[in-house]
């Protein structure tokens, strides 16, 4: 079941209000002056704008002085928001609102898909000691540096698409997750899923008389993992992938494709029409993972 985010954030705000009211009762028991300040604050909201602003500023200073007298923090009577950036609304910015990073992270976690973002697969968690030999290490570090630069240049990298390929166990999925995680941290709406999950969602959409395709096409960053492992369902798999690749490449939308397939194998599986849009040299940086598998070393690269 999908999360009702509006209800979730409303619940957080109610919780913050209850906590603030409990602290107000605590302060009232300490000193009646707190009640007097609260009454003065309430009256301010019926004043003209300029007078209200001055009164509220004065009340705030008096309240901070009173809190200090009792050894309490100056923000003790302020709402305890889970996210101070959006004040538990899920949105930031005015007058044009956009989703807060906290909501983007929640939405990503809410998607029941195999390749969901997790805290173990980030640039910050990257370890050099996972490589079994120097050649693998050099290749991996070079790719990591480029991918980190790509993630930091979002939402408008100079080269919008990446095609990351190589044999299993080299660290491809880790790098895709790290890019997605960095994007989420920076407040960029991101979808990461496997090609298998993509096909599942499209098939489920047929049954529900709806389509997830607009989401795949329009999300600011799409990370499509395990390309080439999904079932080739007639009139579904190739058509969906073409619609995604065609519209995202035309719009130069940041897209990271991850696969075990070489560019030639990609063409053989999906045809020139799809492969040309995924690996178009004008808008795509093709990255090959080489070296030995990390799964036989200390890490678990994919």
Tell me about this structure:
The structure is a single chain. It contains eleven helices and seven strands. The protein has helices at residues 5-30, 33-44, 49-69, 101-110, 134-153, 172-185, 195-207, 213-218, 237-250, 263-270, 272-278, and strands spanning 91-92, 98-99, 161-166, 190-194, 221-227, 255-259, 284-289. The strands form two sheets. Strands 4-5-6-3-7 form a five-stranded parallel sheet. The chain has a two-stranded antiparallel sheet with strand order 1-2. The chain is elongated, with a radius of gyration of 26 Å.
Give the topology.
Blueprint: H1 5-30, H2 33-44, H3 49-69, E1 91-92, E2 98-99, H4 101-110, H5 134-153, E3 161-166, H6 172-185, E4 190-194, H7 195-207, H8 213-218, E5 221-227, H9 237-250, E6 255-259, H10 263-270, H11 272-278, E7 284-289
Parallel strand pairs: 3-6, 3-7, 4-5, 5-6
Antiparallel strand pairs: 1-2
Helix pairs in contact: 2-3, 5-6, 9-11, 10-11
The total beta strand count reads: 7
Query: Any idea what the radius of gyration is?
Result: 26 Å
Low-confidence stretches: 297-302
What percentage of residues falls in helices of 4 or more residues?
A: 40-55%
Sketch the topology as an H/E string, one letter per element: HHHEEHHEHEHHEHEHHE
Count of discrete alpha- or pi-helical segments spanning 4 or more residues? 11
Distance between the termini: 29 Å
